[in-house]
Structures are given as structure tokens and as C-alpha cells.
Amino acid sequence: MEAGGRGLVKSELSFRTSDARYVLLAICVGVGAGSIGSVFHLAIDWSLQWPQWLATHIDGALLVVAAALITMVCTVAAVFVVQKIAPEAGGSGVQEIEGAMEGLREVRWQRVLPVKFFAGLASIGAGLVLGREGPTIHIGASVAEGVAERAKASDLQRRGLLAAGAAAGLACAFNAPLAAVLFVIEETRKQFPYTFNTYMGVIAAAIMSTVMTEVIGGVAPDLALSVPQIPLALLGHFVLLGAFLGALGVLLNRAILTMVDAAHRWQIRIPYVYPAIVGLVVGATVILQPWAVTGGETVIKEVVAAHPGIAVMLLLGVARFVTMVASYSTGVPGGIFAPILALAASFGLAFGEIAAAITPGLDIPPLAFAICAMGGLFTSSVRAPVVGMVLILELTGAYDVTLALMITCLTANLVAQWLGGKPIYEQLLDRTLALAGITRKEPAKEPTGLA
What we know:
Elements: H1 2-47, H2 50-55, H3 60-85, H4 94-101, H5 109-125, H6 133-150, H7 155-174, H8 177-187, H9 196-217, H10 235-269, H11 273-288, H12 297-306, H13 310-329, H14 337-358, H15 366-382, H16 385-396, H17 402-418, H18 424-435
Helix pairs in contact: 1-5, 1-6, 1-7, 1-9, 3-5, 3-11, 4-7, 4-18, 5-6, 6-7, 7-8, 7-9, 8-9, 8-16, 10-13, 10-15, 10-17, 11-13, 12-14, 13-14, 14-15, 15-16, 15-17, 16-17
């Protein structure tokens, strides 16, 4: 009995040591992802000042031409580096991580990390309509792969650390640790290996990444916005908003997939012509209409402060839809979260202004519609409603719109489902696997109704 008891105690101590070691690895992932991601964001913020610097030296038509050429060169250079060194570093990277967690893709972290960092800096900093979060998520997963490799982690631990790295990257991108944890739970629910260790590792990585982000970049919400409490009488308006965003999200996903395929065919026939054209147009737009380009975080704040009117907001929404789809389809490193938020804010503000004009007696705050629209369009495109709700609340700090936001996201998700829409990252992963000639096992179908 004594020997058996000692063996049980020894086994329990070994188990606890294994737990502690894994969480320590996840903490290392969070620190690495948060540090590199924060430097990445600061570098982008610095690089986005180039139009103002250029405008102090030249003006008029020469300024427009020079800006167009700068963005074109940066775009083509980023595509060249991706194509020649790390083709998997193009685009968002979220689909690559999901594929790696399924065992269908390999994270070659030594080449992905620098390419994602520098090519992403070139493309996003040049003014393309791309988000920082895609590269940061891929950078976080690359850090995780490096940590797993050095620690000689098991396959289960490696997959768990990849999820932790992705969460750390998203937490860093938006200073939103809770949304990052929920992103793993909701978006990668088919790939994430749920165990006590892997779950705790995701939380630990998100926490440490956020700590590093706040140490380096500050504590406040990334997109702090304040709105009054929404009266119950207005909640029906958010059902209509959600329905519109559900349809818009399905259209956006289809446009992205269509243009990604078209750009791929262009690249095979006449290499680098398509990204050069997009770069020229976006570069000129940086000077002529800066609200229609760049990732969008600054644009949201400026538009909200300016109150430009319904017509301008609708035109801006259409313009950002086109520039976002064109920018992502070039194949440079860049995400879609931030552009989705800016696109949604444009249409949300217009929707709120229209609602206020039609029913002037209800005292409608248009900004509330912009905030809820961000969550709704994210939900209908990514199909992760809980992440959409929490992400927007953490980003804006506008907790007074919680109920309206939930209604918008619920409606957007239902409409997207009824219209046959699929999650954007699932579609991008299917496309990546098809191009690589990899057959994906069909997952078990999820229940679609009541028994």
C-alpha cells in the first residue's frame, strides 16, 4: 500500500509539473507575440505618416503620381517577397493556422515570421485596405511553432500552442484578450484540441500578450467611443440593420473569393500586373480621398467626428468595399477585421442617419448604429457572433449598446445562414487546400435545427 501511495503521489506531481510547464510555454508565446505584434503595430503607425511627409515636399498632380508610385512599388515588392520566400504568408493567415491545427498545413515559422512582418509592414503601411490583425495572428502562431519546436512539444501540445499564439496575436491586435480567447473557442472549434492544459494555455497567452501590448502601446480601448443607453423602442431598428448586414457579409465574402481567384489567374498569365494596378489606384486615393483607403481604425474616428452626411457615408461604404476586396486579393499579407469594421461603420452611420430622418421623434443616436454595425458585419462574414459582440465591446468600451449589439449580431448571423453564406476563413482554407491538392476530411455535420 505504501509503495502504491508513493507511486500515486509521484504520478500526481509529474502531472502537475507537466501542467505548469505547458502554461509556462503558453506564457512565453504570449510575451513573444505581444512584443513582436506591438512593434509591428507601432511600425505601421509610423509608416502611415508618409503621405503627410510627402505633401510637405510636393503638391498637386505630382503629389498624386508620386503617392501612386510609392504604393505600387510597396505592393509589388510585398507580393514578390511572398511569392518567392513564403507563399503561405499571403493574405490573412487565419486559414493557415486553422489548417495547421487540422494537420493539413505546416507553419514554417522561420520564414513566415519575417515575411509576414516586413511584407505586411510594406503593404499595410503603403495604404492598402488591410488589417493588422491577420499578420499579427500569423506572427503569434509562428512564435508558438518556434516555442513548440524548441520545447520538443507533443503534437497535441503543438496544436494547443498554435491556438494560444493565434489568440495572443488577436489580443495584441485589438487590445482585446477576452475576444481573443472566444475567437479560438468559436472560430476554431472544429480544430482546437480541448484539454485543460490547452484551454488554460490560450487564456495565459492572451493575458500576457495584452500585458505586453499595454506596456508598449497603452491601456485604453483601441477605438474608444461613447453612446447613450439605447431606448427599448429603438431595438426593432437593429433587427433591420442586422438583416442588411447579413446580406452584405455574404456579398462581401463572395466578392473576396471571386477576386482572389481572378487575381491568381492574372498572376499566372501576367505576373505582378494586378497588384501594380491596385497599388497605383490605392496610392492615388491616399491623397485624393484618404477615408477610402488604409486599414480603417483612424478613418472610423475621423468619420464619426465629422458627421459628413448620408450620401457621403454611403459612397464611402461602397468605395471601401471595392478597395478592401481589391487590396486583399493582391495576395500581400494583411487581414480583413479592421477593414470590415470601417466598412460597417460607414454603412451603420448612414443607416442611423436615415433612421433619424425618418423618425425624428425617437432621438436616434447614429453612432450606436455604427458600433452595432461593426459587430454585425463581422458576424455575417466570419460567422462568429459571440466574438463579434465581445470584440466590439472591448474595442469601443460602449457597453450601453450591448443589447442592441446582440440583436444586430444575432439577426446578421441568421440572415447570412439563410442566404447560404459560409464563414470566410473556412472558404479561404478550402481554396488553399484545393490549390495544394490536399483532400480535406469532411467534418461531422453540425445540427441545423431542433430534433
